[in-house]
Amino acid sequence: MPSDLITDKSRLWFPPLAYVYSSLSGLSYLLMRVAAGAAFAVHGWPKIQDPLKNAGMVESLGFSPGTLWSPLLAGTEFIGGILLAIGFLTRPAAIGATIVLLVTVYFHWVVQNQGYAGAEKSVLWAAMTFFFAMHGGGFFSVDRMMRKEV
Fold first, then answer.
1. What does the pLDDT look like over 17-30, one tens digit per residue?
2. Which of 13, 80, 89, 125 is the most exposed place for a label (fewest CB within 10 A)?
């Protein structure tokens, strides 16, 4: 299994672990992508069941009309989460997720005045989804299986 991570043993503190790192790098992409996508989809599940429920909230953040942005939020979280988890259209799904998460960082940090403590999870999830936006779905992804990436 090819690795895009460390392959030069001379750069490692513990060169005997090179095989472990290269063998498990594809699995690490898979685990992180599935965790991020599944969490995002689970978070979006209640929103997709009632896509207009958050219209007022998104309007309060300056996204008008709420009847447009609320369903887009629901779809980005639920459908985008599923796409991210399976690694299909990984980059566009991850870009959408990152944008949503950066808005939640702003919401918690600035609007609700919670600072870093309130935005911490969103910051971490945004970093994770940004990683996939930049690197794609990795070895075990539908994108790679289809030999396509956006």
1. 888 888 888 899 99
2. 13
